[in-house]
Amino acid sequence: MEKIYDTIIIGGGPAGYSAALYCARNARSTLVIEKLSAGGQMATSPHIENYPGFDEAVDGFDLAEKMQHGAEHFGAETMYETVTKLELSGEIKTVETTGGILKSKTVLCAMGAYPRELGLKKEAQLRGKGIAYCATCDGMLFKNKDVIVVGGGNSAIADALYLSKICHHVYLVHRRDSLRASKVYEDQLKDSGIDIIWNSRVVDIKEDGIVRGAVLEDVHTNKLREIACDGIFVAVGRVADTALVKDQLTLDDHGYILADETTKTNLDGVFAIGDIRSKPLRQIVTAASDGATASKFVEEYLMRLK
Ligand code: NAP
């Protein structure tokens, strides 16, 4: 007979594996589908200092593996496939993957978010040729070179600080005259040697097949200036990965799945957890919290189905 899971969780980040841990501990058949490896965005950060329980910074990849093993220890399964289609209405949900079709009574959307692009004409063609979205993944490719980091949030500052230890020179280009980063990051910027270029945005990329520089525009005067560089790290926020569900689930004005603290979406038996959910703070600890909370309402829902 065809297997019907109690819970299928799409995405193996901190939200996904926290939910998997709690659901498995409730003795529910629990499957996590992950396309690459555990951790999501967290796995790309080698220094996590704000997840409770560690004296020193913890490596995101290691933490992800521990979360996965913790959930699997209680019986959760992991499948490495890409989900291609979801049918989320009705009592039995269908999850189509590159490996076949699966059925489940509940689905937890934990697909997270991906980096927002600047929207420049040559951006896509230069990806991997000087345009990058992850400093910890690609930083070493720019050892002793000059780079620009674009953005003014925590990600941009963390990336700029990380790159300042590897690269010859780092410019931080921000479109306003103040940052939206935590104080702890702002303090570290002071003696970092990073050149902050305020009130400016990147409007064009200089290239000859690979990045050679950027054209910046002053947002007040519209004056243009050129900066020679080998790499441009884009750190201007993230976009919720809702392509699979946007026609079935209600999204908020920013494109995140609309769900309150219960993590319940507009469809019965479908939950949104982690960075993909509308919420005021996207952190590992709030993602993990979503996973645990969802398990309570998954359990309530499954009990009602009987
Ligand atoms: P964010 O906080 O949304 O900041 C995005 C930054 O990019 C803003 O400064 C924004 O400018 C700028 N921006 C947006 N679109 C732009 C465009 N088209 N061109 C130029 N600049 C643009 O995003 P984030 O830094 O990725 O952080 C996301 C979440 O992760 C936040 O909640 C953050 O606290 C968290 N995070 C935490 C840590 C940590 O605590 N260790 C590290 C990284 C991220 P404006 O300021 O003008 O809007």
TrEMBL record:
Pfam families: Pyr_redox_2 (PF07992). Its EC number is 1.8.1.9. It catalyses: [thioredoxin]-dithiol + NADP(+) = [thioredoxin]-disulfide + NADPH + H(+). The keyword Flavoprotein applies. Binds 1 FAD per subunit. Its cofactor is FAD. It comes from the Bacteria. Coiled coil: none annotated. Keywords: Disulfide bond, FAD, Flavoprotein, NADP, Oxidoreductase, Redox-active center. Residues 5-291 form the FAD/NAD(P)-binding domain. SUPFAM superfamilies: FAD/NAD(P)-binding domain. GO terms for molecular function: thioredoxin-disulfide reductase (NADPH) activity. InterPro entries: FAD/NAD-bd_sf, FAD/NAD-binding_dom, Ferredoxin-NADP_redctase_2, Pyr_nucl-diS_OxRdtase_2_AS, Thioredox_Rdtase. It is an enzyme of class 1 (oxidoreductase). Belongs to the class-II pyridine nucleotide-disulfide oxidoreductase family. Homodimer. This is Thioredoxin reductase. It comes from Amedibacillus hominis.
